[in-house]
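Troubleshooting log. The previous run stalled partway through. Resubmitting the same two chains, unchanged.
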Amino acid sequence: MMVPSNRMPGSKRNWALGVILTISSLAMAAPLLWTLLLSLKPNDELLRGTQTVFSPPYTLRNYADILGHSAVFGWLLNSAIVSLAVTFGVLVLSSLALWIRAPALSRVQSDLYHRVVWSRHSRTIGDHRPASDVHAAIVRRRLRERGVRSVPRGPNEATRANPAGLTSKELEVLQLLAQGCSSAQLARRLHRSPKTVDHHVCSLLEKLGVHSRTEAVAAAYARGIVSVHQPTPTQPAD
Amino acid sequence: MSAHSAAAAAPRAWSAAASEARSGLFFVAPYLLVFAILLIYPLFSGMWLSLHKDDLFGGSEFIGLENYWRLMRDAVFLRSVRNTCYFVLLTVPALALIGLGFALALNNQTRRSAVLRGLFFSSSVLSVTIVTLIWRMVLIPDGGLIAAFRTKIGLPPVPFLSDAHLALPALAIVTIWWCIGLPMMLFLAALQQVPKDLYEAAALDNAGRWRTLIRITLPSIRRTAVVVIVIETILQFQLFGQAQIMTLGGPNNASLPIVLFIYQIGFQRWDIGYAAAASEVLFCIILLAAMAQFFVARGRRR
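Second attempt completed without errors. Output:
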């Protein structure tokens, strides 16, 4: 229902875009083509007017004259020497100036690497909890003993058992994503609104530390969260 | 123990930083040297020169700010400042908008887009002499491309380059044709940097093309837009070659830009001090324009 009504203005827009692009490429190319045509006409003919430019005969005499004029190659050599010297000088000076940044850059990168990789390891693999988690558990227990009710309990039992700290619902969504479901299909299968499904997708992307659904699926396969022969968690494809 | 080792480590870290700074200075020195000789020294010697009456043939006399007072009263100079500002207004917004349009239209992997990207960039590799030669043959009323078309449909040819009202717009069109490649490339590079997940999120929220453009694409490439506008402003304030070759500043100074004014004063009338003063004024104008854009862009983000 939605798709054809969406496609109509889209194709009209593409058509308009095509026209605009054609006109602008003509405007870009016209001066170049005009000059090319002029270069194919003998000079004495052009002095009388440019009416004959669009009709043959054309001649390569101008090009032959240029190539026969030996000084042209000397000029080309001049240009080549100047541009090579400039390129060389700029490269040497700039790369020397950049070199000073290299140790600093590599230090920052390795620092970042350690922080990101280690924090992610301790969060996703979950077999050795960082010390801070243990401390937090002790504090929580003591607070509860003193009658504080609203202490966050952390993830529930099922979630703790799941890889990468995913909730069971997120796991289900991830498995459906791996089968190539779109948001709309996910919503239909899970009997949730597309908005809710997107929330699940969002939080599982964050937990897996990836930026897109495709990456999430790849990460899921790589970590063995999803395997090729897994049965569909809810009803089969419609 | 740990306090002790920290105290011992501090001087070592400090000396390591110092030795790194020393070797760094060694690496940067050649660049700084060339920068100082080719940029800093001419900048200050130009300022010094602008305070003199000098003709490069020996006669040099300190006259303070007299050159600048002369400039403020010089109708030709004021005309050239007006011309240059008008030219910048004609070219820079057009370059930014057309460049952005091309980049948006051609930011995909189809073969058509690749060919058109090449075509739109092709003019940028030409030197100013060739560009002006090509466009002279398009614009001249006597057998040019536009004139040929107009006579074919029964209209009189238009003397673009010798009409006081059309000369600068004609130069602007030539310049846009010549310079459109760089803004397009900068915008294309910026568009490829926009994270894909933003578009994915927009698609999930059922955002249309227009809303995606306004809310995601444009805010994401705002910094590049500032860079493009600053670069193009600096470049277009320095208009010289097109005017020198196509109109010589004419007719009646209608297309005389500041740099051509400086060239004529300095290297044809040999009034070097006066030309240096005009250069300093141009330098200040460009600096102010670039900084104004920079601060406007930064202020808007806050």
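Takeaways: Chain A touches chain B at residues 13, 17, 20-21, 24-25, 27-32, 34-35, 38, 46, 49-51, 53, 89, 92-94, 96-97, 99-100, 103, 183, 194, 198, 201, 205, 211-213 (CB under 8 Å). The longest helix of chain A spans residues 2-39.
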